[in-house]
Design a protein that fits this description.
alpha+beta; two-stranded antiparallel ribbon
């Protein structure tokens, strides 16, 4: 049995500054999530900043913004794969 896991490229989080409703904030995400967010924004015909604002407005207060972004990107990636995950 092979105990090695084939890992994707792993990067530390990158902090980026954004403005939501006129308030400056920053978000730290790994590169894969920044790329996924940008791709999702393109597919929806919006900008990453606008998509982040939409996510921010829709998230429960108990869920941090970076977590909400990661979960949205993950959910969209899973939907794109289809019901069987492929």
């Amino acid at each position: 049995m092979n105990d090695r896991l084939d890992l994707p490229p792993l990067t530390p989080p990158v902090k980026r500054s954004i403005t939501i409703d006129g308030h400056a904030t920053s978000v730290s995400l790994e590169d894969a999530f920044w790329r996924g967010l940008s791709a999702l924004a393109r597919r929806q015909g919006t900008t990453p900043a606008r998509l982040i604002a939409q996510i921010d407005h829709g998230r429960p207060a108990a869920v941090g913004l970076a977590t909400a972004i990661r979960l949205v990107v993950l959910a969209q990636a899973q939907l794109a794969r289809g019901p069987d995950g492929e």
